[in-house]
Design a protein that fits this description.
The complex is a heterodimer of chains A (about 375) and B (about 260). By secondary structure, chain A is of the alpha/beta class. Chain A has two domains: about 5-235, Thiamin diphosphate (ThDP)-binding fold, Pyr/PP domains (Rossmann fold, 3-Layer(aba) Sandwich); about 240-374, Rossmann fold, CATH 3.40.50.920. Chain A has helices at about 10-20, 35-40, 55-70, 80-95, 120-125, 145-160, 170-175, 215-235, 255-270, 285-295, 310-320, 335-350, 360-374, and strands at about 5, 25, 50, 75, 100-105, 135-140, 165-170, 175-180, 205, 240, 250, 275-280, 280-285, 300-305, 325-330. In chain A, the strands form three sheets. Chain A has a seven-stranded mixed sheet with strand order 3-2-4-5-7-6-13, with helices on both faces. In chain A, strands 10-12-11-14-15 form a five-stranded mixed sheet, sandwiched between helices. In chain A, strand 11, helix 9 and strand 12 form a beta-alpha-beta unit. Chain A is globular. With about 260 residues, chain B is of the alpha/beta class. Chain B has a single domain (about 30-250), classed as Rossmann fold (3-Layer(aba) Sandwich). Helix content of chain B is about 35%, strand content about 20%. Chain B has nine helices and nine strands. Chain B has helices spanning about 30-45, 75-85, 100-105, 105-115, 155-160, 165-170, 185-205, 220, 225-240, and strands at about 50-55, 70, 90-100, 120-125, 130, 135, 175-180, 210-215, 245-250. Chain B is globular. The model of chain B has no long low-confidence stretch (mean pLDDT about 95). The chains are: A alpha/beta (about 375), B alpha/beta (about 260). The interface between A and B is large, with 39 and 37 residues.
C-alpha cells in the first residue's frame, strides 16, 4: 500500500481496526477525541462494538468485559481520563486479560491543558493503578511507528495476558504525516481457553482479580513478576541514531527523542560526536543497551517533556558511571531543536563531575530560558 | 406387594455448584441465587449465560453458579456486562449487585446501562445496608435506621434520603422490565421467581434493560433475629420501597411463566 497523509489519532484508530480490534469503548477528551470519533464512524459498519461510555471509569470496565470475553478490546484517552481508568486497568492486570490503552498525553497535573506533554511517565510506566503489576509501555515517536505499535500492542497483550499502554503526546495525536497503513487483518476465530463465552460443553470459566487468601495473592504476584522478567528479556525495543562513535549520549522518548535527533544532526555538523538512544519500549526499558553505552560515552543528556521522570530510571541504571545531565520542558511545552542543540553543546563542553540530582542545575537554566522567551 | 413410583420433586439446580455458601444464617442471598439458578435451568440458558458478580457480600457469587462468570470492580458490573454483551450479543448476560454497589458507587453505570437499553438483566439485592464492610449506612438505608456509620439513626437532614431504584430506572426509555419484589416469605419468594423469569425472558426477546429489585435481609448487620428480619422487611422496608411492577414492556404482557 502507498503512503498517505494521515492524522495521528485517525491513523492509530484505523491501525487498530486493521489489527482486528473488535471493541472500542471510550469517552471524549482532548487531544484524543478524534480516536473515538473515528471509531464511531467505522466500527458499527464493520459489525464490531463501539460504545461512547458515560465516563472513562465505565469505558475501561467495558474494555475489561470484552477482554474477558476473549475479544481484542481497547480504549484511547488522555491524561485526566487515564487517571480515571486506573481502577479498571489494575483489575485488568489482576485478572490477567489482554487489553490495549492509548494515552495521548497532555499537560498536567489536574485539568492542566491540552498541549503535548510526557508528564504521565510515572503513572504509565510504574503501574499507576493499585497493587503489584507491570504494564508494557510502547512510546512511538512518529505516526508510522505508532501505527506499527498498535498491532504490536495487541500481540504483546495476548502473548503475556497483560495490559499494554501505547503512549504518545498531543503532538502525535494531532499531527499529519505520511504513513502507510497495514492491510486489513482477518479477525481471529480462535477463542482463548480462559475466556467467558458461555460454558457450552466445558467446565465454567471464572475471571476475577480477587485472591482473598494472602498465600494465593502472593503466588499471583509472583506469577506476574516472573512474567514481567520474561517480558524484560524478550521485548525490549529502541532506536539508535549516530551512536557508533558517540561521546555524548542523548536519551529521549517520543516527541522529545525525535526533536533531539534533529539537534544531534546539527551538533554533528558542528563536530560534536553526539548520538541518540530512543527507547520505544519504556517498559521494559532498554537497560542492557544503556549499560553498554555507559562504557563508551563521556556524558549523558536526558531530554524529556516533563520534570525528569525517565531521568530517574536512567540514573538508576547508569549508577554514577558517567555524569548525567537533564533538560526538560513541562506544562505542554515542546522543546525546539535549537534548545536541545544548546544543551548538547553545553554538555559537550562540561568537564565537571556529575550531580546527584541533575534537576538542580537544570532549574535555573530553564528559568533563564523562560525569561529569555518572554 | 405394594408398588411405588418415585418422582423427583426437588433437587439442586443444574446451574448450581455443590458447595456450601459463605452467607450468614438468615441472609436471603442464598434464596436469590437459587431462584436465578432455577430460572436459568428452566429456560435452558446455562451454557450461554455469563454472570457478572459485584463487590459486596456476593463477591463470590461465581463460586455458587455453574456457569461462566466474571467479577467486576465495585459498581462497575453494568459496564462490564455492556462490554461483554456488545461483543457476544447471542449470550445471556446478567449482573448481581447489592445496594451499595448499584445505587451508590455504581449509580452512573446502572443509569446509563438502562438509558442505552443494554439488553442485560440486573438482579438488585436491596437490604438497606453495607454487609461485607460491616454494616455501614447504604443509599437505601431507611430514615432513622441505625448502622455503624449512622449510629444514632439515619438523619435525613444530614445524610439524605433512601433511593428508590426501581422507580428511577422505570422512567428510562431504554428499560423493558423493572419490578420490585421481596424475599421475606414463601408467597413473595414465588413472586420473585416469576419476576426473575420475566426479566430473563425480556433479555431473550431483546426488549432492553431488565431489573428485578429484591428486598432482602441482613440479620447480622441489622443486629436482629432472622424472624425479626423478615418482619422488618414486611413492616419497615416495604412502606419505603413499595413492591410492584414499575415497567413491563407490552411484549411481556400475558406471558405465562
Amino acid at each position: 500500500m502507498a503512503k498517505e497523509l494521515l492524522k495521528g489519532n485517525h491513523a492509530f484508530a484505523e491501525a487498530a481496526i486493521r489489527a482486528g480490534v473488535e471493541a472500542f469503548y471510550g469517552y471524549p477528551i482532548t487531544p484524543s477525541s478524534e480516536f473515538l470519533e473515528y471509531m464511531s464512524s467505522r466500527l458499527p459498519s464493520l459489525g464490531r462494538a463501539f460504545v461512547q461510555a458515560e465516563s472513562e471509569v465505565s469505558a475501561i470496565n467495558m474494555v475489561y468485559g470484552a477482554a474477558c470475553a476473549g475479544k481484542r478490546a481497547m480504549t484511547a484517552s488522555s491524561s485526566p481520563g487515564i487517571s480515571l481508568m486506573m481502577e479498571g486497568i489494575s483489575y485488568i492486570a489482576g485478572t490477567e486479560v489482554p487489553a490495549v490503552v492509548v494515552n495521548v498525553m497532555r499537560g498536567g497535573p489536574g485539568l492542566g491543558n491540552i498541549a503535548p506533554s510526557q508528564g504521565d511517565y510515572y503513572q504509565m510506566i510504574k503501574g499507576g493503578g493499585h497493587g503489584d503489576y507491570f504494564p508494557i509501555v510502547l512510546a512511538p515517536a512518529r505516526v508510522q511507528e505508532a501505527i506499527d505499535s498498535i498491532e504490536l500492542a495487541f500481540d504483546l497483550a495476548e502473548k503475556y495476558r497483560s495490559i499494554v499502554h501505547v503512549i504518545v503526546d498531543g503532538n502525535m495525536g494531532q499531527m499529519m504525516e505520511p504513513a502507510e497503513l497495514p492491510p486489513m487483518k482477518e479477525i481471529s476465530k480462535e477463542v482463548p481457553d480462559w475466556a467467558v463465552t458461555g460454558a457450552k460443553g466445558r467446565e465454567p470459566n471464572t475471571l476475577t482479580s480477587i485472591y482473598l487468601a494472602p498465600e494465593d495473592e502472593e503466588v499471583t504476584n509472583l506469577r506476574l513478576l516472573k512474567r514481567w522478567k520474561e517480558i524484560e528479556k524478550n521485548e525490549v525495543l529502541y532506536q539508535e541514531y549516530q551512536l557508533d562513535d558517540a561521546e555524548i549520549l542523548v536519551i529521549g522518548f517520543g516527541t522529545a527523542g525525535r526533536v533531539a535527533s534533529s539537534a544531534i544532526r546539527e551538533a554533528r555538523e558542528e563536530g560534536i560526536k553526539a548520538g541518540l538512544l530512543r527507547p520505544i519500549t519504556l517498559a521494559p526499558f532498554p537497560q542492557e543497551r544503556l549499560i553498554e553505552l555507559t562504557k563508551q560515552v563521556r556524558r549523558i543528556l536526558v531530554v524529556e517533556m516533563n520534570s525528569g521522570m525517565m531521568l530517574d530510571d536512567v540514573m538508576k541504571i547508569v549508577k554514577g558511571q558517567v555524569p548525567v545531565e537533564f533538560y526538560g520542558r513541562m506544562g505542554g511545552m515542546t522543546p525546539l531543536p535549537d534548545e536541545i542543540l544548546d544543551e548538547i553543546k553545553r554538555v559537550a563542553a562540561n568537564k565537571g563531575p556529575g550531580s546527584d540530582d541533575p534537576r538542580d542545575e537544570w532549574i535555573p537554566r530553564l528559568e533563564g530560558r523562560i525569561l529569555g522567551e518572554k | 406387594m405394594v408398588s411405588t413410583t418415585a418422582e423427583v420433586v426437588y433437587q439442586r439446580p443444574e446451574s448450581f455448584t455443590d458447595v456450601h455458601t459463605h452467607y450468614c444464617p438468615g441472609c436471603t442471598h442464598g434464596i436469590a441465587h437459587r431462584l436465578i439458578a432455577e430460572v436459568i435451568d428452566e429456560m435452558g440458558l446455562r451454557e450461554k449465560t455469563i454472570g457478572v458478580a459485584p463487590v459486596g457480600c456476593s463477591v463470590f457469587a461465581y463460586k455458587y453458579f455453574k456457569m461462566d462468570f466474571v467479577e467486576a470492580p465495585h459498581g462497575r458490573a453494568p459496564a462490564m456486562a455492556t462490554g461483554i454483551k456488545r461483543v457476544l450479543p447471542e449470550n445471556t448476560v446478567f449482573t448481581y449487585q447489592g445496594d451499595g454497589d448499584l445505587a451508590s458507587i455504581g449509580m452512573a453505570e446502572i443509569m446509563h446501562a438502562a438509558a442505552r437499553g443494554e439488553n442485560i438483566t440486573v438482579i438488585f439485592i436491596n437490604n438497606a445496608i453495607y454487609g461485607m464492610t460491616g454494616g455501614q449506612m447504604a443509599p437505601t438505608t431507611l430514615p432513622g435506621m441505625k448502622t455503624t456509620s449512622s449510629p444514632f439513626g439515619r438523619d435525613v437532614e444530614l445524610t439524605g434520603h433512601p433511593i428508590r431504584m426501581a422507580e428511577i430506572l422505570a422512567i428510562m426509555d431504554g428499560s423493558g422490565y423493572i419490578v420490585r419484589r421481596s424475599l421475606h416469605n414463601a408467597a413473595n419468594i414465588r413472586k420473585s421467581k416469576k419476576a426473575i423469569r420475566l426479566a430473563f425472558e425480556a433479555q431473550e426477546r431483546g426488549l432492553g434493560f431488565s431489573m428485578v429489585e429484591l428486598l432482602s435481609s441482613c440479620p447480622t448487620n441489622w443486629k436482629i433475629s432472622v424472624r425479626d428480619s423478615m418482619e422488618f422487611i414486611a413492616d419497615k422496608m416495604i412502606p419505603v420501597f413499595p413492591l410492584g411492577d414499575y415497567k413491563v414492556s407490552p411484549s411481556l404482557e400475558g406471558l405465562k411463566v
